Amino acid sequence: MKRYLPLILLILVAIFMPLFVTNPYHLHTVIMVLLYAYLATCWNIVGGFAGQLSFGHAAFMAIGGYTSTILFGQMGISPWIGMLVGGIIAAFVAVLIGLPTFRLKGAYYAISTIAFATGFLVILQTVKTVGPIQFGGAEGLSIPFLADATFLDFQFLSKVPYYYIILVFSAIILFVSWYIDRSKLGFYLTAIREDEDAAKALGINVIRSKLIAAGLSGFFTAIGGSFYAQLFRYLEPHHIAGPDFSTQMIFLAIVGGIGTVYGPFVGGIVLTAVAEFTRVNFTDLPPGTHLVIYGVAVLLVILYFPKGILAPLQDLYKRLFSKKQSVER
């Protein structure tokens, strides 16, 4: 029981966080930290477990965000339903991208994701309407605020409900990652990542396993995009579908520990918190200084902890726990 005491304390802190973080700006920052950690974990399903690098996951975010926004703002359908519809569409698109590229060796999947994300961004920036559907073009889309909004409308006057929603989403994606890691699919993906030819020789359906990973990753990433849309109530094409979100997911996953269950989530929390701290506290320095500090932090982690920061944290916890046990005996 004592072994899980730190985890229990962490869960309790997460549950009661809004009681201590009452400033709306600070709570919003915590929400964004959790969102980035969530997205990094989503990316890790295909990029880490399957070893298929994707540089265009922001497109799946945009699919989720635009789908729920259009369905809600122009058709009156609840964002919760739009969120699921956007996730299904993103999963379908992810599978379509993987169908031809997963049959080839090399960087074809990575190149395809870049090409798709770039093309999709151009479409969002240039297309304003398709029939009765409004996409907004470069101006983007805004979500109308309802004065009498209910839970089904996914609109709240306080940041607290958004915090608990992203907390639940984070718990779900961590559980999904944990389950995949311990399932047959997880073993298949690990074998494919380490040696695809050997995996084929063992009778593993390589393409099917990769497609499942890509579909799951795209689905949950789109869920994050829908949450982002409801949180800000405005979608700007270059921000949500541009390369920034895609590269952030990759950096956070690599720094935290690519291919592990909890590494990308831990990396998302640590690095996003560092980035926000430097952005706020180094305002007197030349513009972009906080980005330099953030980049140096990423570089140091990659140099000294190539397997990610999760591994040394786990080692430290084991040493402290074993030492405590020996003292008690």
Written overview of the protein:
- By secondary structure, this protein is mainly α.
- It has 15 helices and 4 strands.
- It has helices spanning 5-15, 17-20, 24-49, 57-75, 79-101, 108-126, 160-182, 184-194, 196-201, 206-232, 237-241, 243-257, 263-281, 289-304, 310-328, and strands spanning 129-130, 133-134, 141-142, 234-235.
- Strand 1 and strand 2 form a beta hairpin.
- The longest helix is centred in the middle third of the chain and has 27 residues, at 206-232.
- The radius of gyration is 21 Å and the shape is globular.
**Count of alpha/pi helices:** 15
The ordered H/E elements are HHHHHHEEEHHHHEHHHHH
Enumerate the strands of the largest sheet in spatial order, edge to edge or round the barrel: 1-2
Structural class: mainly alpha
Beta-strand segment tally: 4
Tell me what portion of residues adopts beta-strand conformation. under 5%
Q: What average pLDDT do the residues reach?
A: 89
Low-confidence stretches: none
Give the overall form.
globular
Q: Biggest β-sheet: count, sense, barrel?
A: 2 strands, antiparallel
Distance between the termini: 16 Å
Helix content: over 70%
How large, in whole angstroms, is the Cα Rg?
21 Å
